[in-house]
Structures are given as structure tokens and as C-alpha cells.
Write a structure and sequence with these properties.
By secondary structure, the protein is α/β, with parallel strands linked by helices. Helices cover 39% and strands 24% of the residues. The N terminus is likely disordered.
């Protein structure tokens, strides 16, 4: 099994360890003493190709003694002979043959990394790292990004789908730039700001074939009340991290008839699948309620409201020309539009 490396360019790039498997054993070299560098690896791979110090030196624009020193230094670092030398020939040892593909891979990764880093800086490329908790939020993220990317070709979005608490931890340690979704009342970090887009209500979704949908159709109801919902099994979309500490202790933002065999699931996407199967109804945040021809959507008369918005680092929020600020501004404009099409 070959290892991959993240190599940073200094005048002579250091690589802090080389790993490979041989017959089920993991060998680790170069984690003690001086770190090997790209010049050593260039000398090694070139000499392995030519098996001639003079030709290797010529190809590398170095002197033979300099090539010899680099090879010797690499062998000392790895603690093993890479070449068998005689007065008449140079050949690779068995370890040298095994190490050669790894050395070439390390150099390939380094040069590829250096190339994209140079391209990154020349183009002024800016990565915008966005966290979200449900695939049903993709339509909103796309709608926010579209006008930004139309005018800012240098912005490269990176999306992370995970539970809100995990994404907020990433945001806290600067692994994400934004987290979009419902506000998490448990989260607190003085360095993080929450920008509320709106107070979000809940929508009832149910299969057209379900008894609840048929009852509402007979009565020509456009909305449902809690008494309408009470006799029917509920599909409850709640992230696992909230299940233990909030839902199971009775802290619920939506009413639940515990006398029924309700179904718990982790995401709105899962709730959609179960409602489509006729398993029950679900109450979901408005921005995650995507149209579907087999489902009926009812407003819920007693719906509570909860803040929906975007988390970001406070210093980034105040950098008015940043991609983060542009994303938030565009989100505010879209959410406040009279008709929010999905």
C-alpha cells in the first residue's frame, strides 16, 4: 500500500517520513534525524534510471561528488543501502527497487501540489467552505451561490454535509467558513456569530394516498391543526446529537403523540422517503420542504418558529468584501424575497 504526502515548498522541501507495506509489514523511514528532501529524491530516481553517476550528474546539472553526497545522505537517513556499487557498475538493491515507486510518487505529488499552489495564487482563487446538515438544503445553497459565481469566477465552493454540531466544531477551528441551517440553542462560541435570515415555521408533508391527506381533501383544508395530526403516526426528523440530550428528555419544539408507534429518522431526506412510502406525516422546516408530485404540503396552524440562518466567524463577517459576506448578503436578499421559489 502506497502512502500519499502533503508536501510544503521551502527551498528544499522536507518530507517527514516514508511509509510502505511489504508482505503485510509496515515500514517507516525518515521519522528520525534529518528529514529527506526533494533534491535527495531527485538524485535517487535519476541515478536509478541511469545507473551511472556521470549521466545522473549531467541530467541534474550537478557534479558527481554532489550526487554521491545526496545519495549517501538519503541512505543514512533511511538506514539502508539503496544502491550496490562496484568499481564497474551501479545497481539497485532490493530495498532500492521497492523504494523507487514511492520516491517517484512523492516527487509527483510534490510537483503537482506546487503547480496547483502557484496557479491558486496567480488566479487569486478563494475557497468558500460551507457546512450544511441536510441534502434538502442544496437548492438554497445553489440559489445563493449562483449570482455570486456569475460575477466572481475565482470563488471555489466546498460543501460539507454533516450534523450541525459537527459542522459548528469545524467552524470553531477554522475548517469551515459558513454553516447554514437552523440555530442550535446548545452551541456557544464567542468567536462565532449567528446571522438570522428569518424565523422559520414548520410544514406538514404527507403522501397523497395517506388517510390524513384524504381527510383534508374531503374538507378542502389548506392547513392542518395539531388535533388533525394527533391520531396519525408521525415521522420525526431529528439529528442524532439532539436525540439523546433534547428529544428523549421531553424538550420538543413540535408535539408528539407518544401513544403511537412513531418513527425517528436523522434527516429530512429520510423523512421524505418514509412519507412517500405512506408511513406517516412529517413536520419539517419550511426551507427544507421541497416540492414533490406524490406529496401534499399543509401549513400547520400552531407551528412554532425557530431562527434559521448562517453561522460564521465574527472577524470574517465584518470583512465586507469577503466571499463570506457576499454569501450572507445574497442569502438575506433571497430569503426576504416575496416569493421564494424552489
Amino acid at each position: 500500500m502506497k502512502c500519499q504526502y502533503r508536501i510544503i515548498d521551502t527551498p528544499s522541501v522536507s518530507i517527514h517520513g516514508v511509509l510502505w507495506y511489504d508482505e503485510g509489514t509496515l515500514y517507516i523511514f525518515g521519522i528520525w534525524g534529518e528529514s529527506m528532501n526533494t533534491q535527495q529524491l531527485e538524485c535517487f530516481t535519476t541515478l536509478a534510471k541511469t545507473l551511472n553517476y556521470a549521466k545522473a550528474a549531467e541530467q541534474l546539472s550537478m557534479t558527481q561528488p554532489a550526487v554521491s553526497r545526496q545519495i549517501k545522505s538519503l541512505e543514512n537517513e533511511l538506514g539502508t543501502r539503496l544502491f550496490q556499487r562496484t568499481t564497474r557498475s551501479v545497481t539497485l538493491t532490493q530495498v532500492g527497487w521497492q523504494f523507487l515507486p514511492d520516491a517517484r510518487q512523492i516527487l509527483s505529488i510534490y510537483y503537482r501540489s506546487r503547480e496547483w499552489m502557484e496557479s491558486f495564487h496567480k488566479s487569486g482563487r478563494s475557497v468558500l467552505r460551507i457546512g450544511y446538515a441536510d441534502s434538502h438544503a442544496n437548492w438554497l445553497i445553489s440559489k445563493i451561490l449562483a449570482p455570486i459565481l456569475a460575477t466572481q469566477k475565482n470563488i471555489a465552493p466546498e460543501l460539507t454535509l454533516d450534523q450541525t454540531d459537527a459542522n459548528l466544531r469545524r467552524l470553531s477551528v477554522n475548517q469551515l467558513d459558513l454553516v447554514i441551517g437552523m440555530k442550535d440553542a446548545k452551541f456557544s462560541d464567542e468567536a462565532i456569530a449567528f446571522v438570522k435570515l428569518r424565523d422559520e415555521g414548520f410544514v406538514c408533508i404527507v403522501s397523497k394516498a395517506h388517510e390524513l391527506a384524504r381527510e383534508c381533501k374531503k374538507k378542502r383544508q389548506k392547513s392542518v391543526s395539531s388535533p388533525d395530526l394527533w391520531p396519525h403516526r408521525q415521522i420525526i426528523a431529528i439529528p442524532p446529537y439532539l436525540l439523546k440530550h433534547t428529544f428523549s428528555r421531553g424538550h420538543r419544539i413540535i408535539p408528539v403523540n407518544d401513544e403511537l408507534d412513531n418513527i425517528l429518522c436523522a434527516t429530512v431526506s429520510e423523512a421524505y422517503s418514509l412519507t412517500l412510502a405512506g408511513a406517516g406525516f412529517a413536520l419539517i422546516p419550511e426551507h427544507l420542504a421541497l416540492p414533490h408530485k406524490e406529496l401534499v404540503f399543509f401549513s400547520w396552524d400552531e407551528s412554532p418558529h425557530a431562527p434559521m440562518g448562517i453561522y460564521c466567524r465574527k472577524e470574517a463577517y465584518h470583512a465586507k468584501n469577503s466571499a463570506i459576506c457576499k454569501f450572507i448578503s445574497e442569502a438575506q436578499a433571497i430569503i426576504s424575497a416575496p416569493c421564494l421559489e424552489k
